[in-house]
Amino acid sequence: MVIERAAGREPLAALLFGREGRPAADAIADLAAGPDGFSLLNPGSAPPGSAELLRDGLTFDLSGLAPAPQRGVPAAVHRVALPNDFSFDALEAAWFMVGPHLAGAESLLPVLRVATTILRHMTGLAGLQAIVWRPARIVMSPAWFAEAVGVWLAGGPFPALALTALARSERGIGSEGLAFLTGQEFSLHARSGGPNREDSRIAVRLTDWLVTHGRVDTAREVVLSGVGAVWLEPEGQDRLNVTPR
After folding, report:
1. What pLDDT was estimated at residue 35?
2. Which residues of 203-221 are buried (b: 16+ CB within 10 A; e: fewer)?
3. Within a 10 A sphere around the Cβ of 71, how many other Cβ atoms?
């Protein structure tokens, strides 16, 4: 489904509910309380089916709540921790996006940390069946999202399997959604044959390193904690070829 922009903004995430199961703004207000929660701005004057969320001085918009029409479900080709028979057919979406004053700053890590803190808190919504992270076209169970980003927010590695996707092919592993953060995706070439468990570990560690250090514009060797050295070689403006040493 084509996703229209909202005042130049696209959703960071979509919250998926069963048919006629989308919550109203009152349910969001009830959930907001707590040390990991957020505040609702002007709840009495917000348009029906929407809420403006505030945390740490940053605002985010949630739209497509009941009773407003649902928003379109963003495309998702990567599935994580969902049953084999999971289907979008009977699901309805609410959109989560940055507020107007943050347009263009969606990919900054301080903004993402606040955004994922709010989204993690919202995994407690009754009836929530899945979360789509739009930049990586990945759909996952709420429990998976909450655990993965929770580790990151507590000081652990970047959630490479929740805020990016790692797709296996016959020759290696490619990232999707990393360009949203660094401007580049990578292709990790397996040493021989198809990718194995060690290649997967390298891809996860590399994602964390690239998110921390940013784009790579010249060929270089990088030593990744726990998995050893890799050779990074840019290809064009938006891709890295990666070869384990």
Report:
1. 75
2. bbbbbbbbbeeeebeeeee
3. 25
